[in-house]
Amino acid sequence: MVREWANSLIFAVVAATLLRWSAVEAYTIPSESMENSLMVGDYLFVSKLHYGPITPQTPLQVPLTHQTLWEKGPQSYSDLIQLPTFRFPGFSSVQRNDIVVFHVPHEQQRPADVRTNLIKRCIAVAGDTLAIRHGEVFLNGQPGAVAGHPQTTYFLEVAAPNDEIVAALHAQGVVDYREPDGIPRVSANPATGKPGFVISCPAEVAAYFRRQPYAKSFTVVQYPMQLFPDAADFDVSQAASATPNQWQLDDYGPLPVPKKGQSITLTPANAAVYYKIVSQYEHNIGITWKDGMIQQNGQPLTRYTIKQNYYFMMGDNRHNSEDSRFWGFVPEDHIVGKAIFVWLSIDPYADFLHKVRWSRLFHSIS
After folding, report:
1. Domain CATH number, residue 27
2. Confidence of residue 82 (pLDDT cuts 50, 70, 90)
3. What is the C-alpha to C-alpha distance for residues 201 and 22, in angstroms, rounded to an integer?
4. What CATH number is given to the structural domain containing 182?
5. Cα separation, 33 vs 200, whole angstroms
6. How far, in Å, are 36, 175, 183, 218, 290 from residue 167 at the CA level?
7. Given Cys at both, which of 41, 239, 252, 332 links 309, Cβ 3.0 to 4.6 Å?
8. Which residues form a coiled coil (predicted)?
9. Which residues, in sequence order, are CB contacts of 150 under 8 Å at separation 6+?
10. What pTM, to 2 d.p., does this model score?
11. Which of the listed residues 224, 257, 289 is the one where a domain comes to its end?
């Protein structure tokens, strides 16, 4: 009887592991980068069947000979061999506006499939040219049809902050996740010193507050920063554009998204765009960065053919999302799956009786 139970347990564990690897995996949303399309406390299922499951990317451990162990020392008990990865056929390829789970591109110290997983919206696919002008997405020179409920961060300036305004913020679903209770706190407008609230919200909520008599001004908050490809190798090396573009969160590009088979002429003007692709994602050897150019075996690399497709991902909470604007493209072999529906949603700031967001249960994701 004990053996039968043990066999059943082993079978269940193996079956669950295979299901998780090949078909569906559960995730939870820990941060506000996808608000309001996905909310902190959402529990969702991600389909790996849509894009096809991918074989493990963690290197295999191969025992060394006794002689090699002796020569290398007592801590070198295995060599690591990276086998080629393979993606099984899926229902579809990644499409614009899909909400996608993927391995974070910049944790280079670990194999892709044991890195942190992120979830963002695919804004541009391989072959697109992306630009953002005053917060509006353009694809190939035309306004992009962006799905979901993108949020922007604003400063709502008021003459006298009071409980009525705080209640209106709560009623409109405005949450500040930096605060223990989620309630936005009064702060000063950095431009004028006047009191008000920093809030992130979609366009329809912004329109509501602009109409209110207590709104003295309602302006987009600016966050000057260095973005990709000016910082060509986010948190990994000091590679940077020879000629900075000085793009910002709401004014970005134009930037071409690399496509498999595309042949690129590399110059100091564009080398930073492709540095991570050549040096990290496509496993070339002898790659370094020097004098604003990609070098291979000590010589400038002037031409390169892209080996896989890439994607440009952004969070729907546009001013509160670390995404492709910071670290560049997502390689195809980093894609995990497509978010399909929310099966449970817990409000971290609600009381016990209202903890579950019932309206979001089995809510499809778009």
Report:
1. 2.10.109.10
2. low
3. 36
4. 3.30.70
5. 11
6. 19, 11, 9, 18, 56
7. 332
8. none
9. 202, 203, 316, 317, 318
10. 0.86
11. 224
- Is the per-residue pLDDT at 69 higher than 60? no
> pLDDT band at residue 121, thresholds of 50, 70 and 90?
very high
**363 belongs to a structural domain:** no
- CA 281/CA 333 separation, integer angstroms: 9
Per-residue confidence (pLDDT) for residue 61, from 0 to 100: 47
> Do 209 and 184 share a structural domain?
yes
Calculated CA dihedral for residues 203, 139, 327, 330, nearest 10 degrees: 110
CA distance 20 to 187: 45
Q: Which amino acid is at 337?
A: G
Instruction: Say which residue the tokens 């996608």 belong to.
Output: 100
Report percent pLDDT > 70 for the chain. Answer: 85
pLDDT value for 83: 58
Is 92 part of a structural domain of the chain?
Answer: yes
Q: Tell whether 157 and 241 lie within a shared domain.
A: no
67 and 163 together in one domain = no
DSSP character string of 273-297: HHHHIIIIIT--SSEEEETTEEEET
Question: 317 and 207 in one domain?
Answer: no
Mean pLDDT across 269-280: 95
Instruction: Judge if 218 and 283 occupy the same domain.
Output: no
Domains held by the chain: number: 2
Q: 286 and 346: one domain?
A: yes
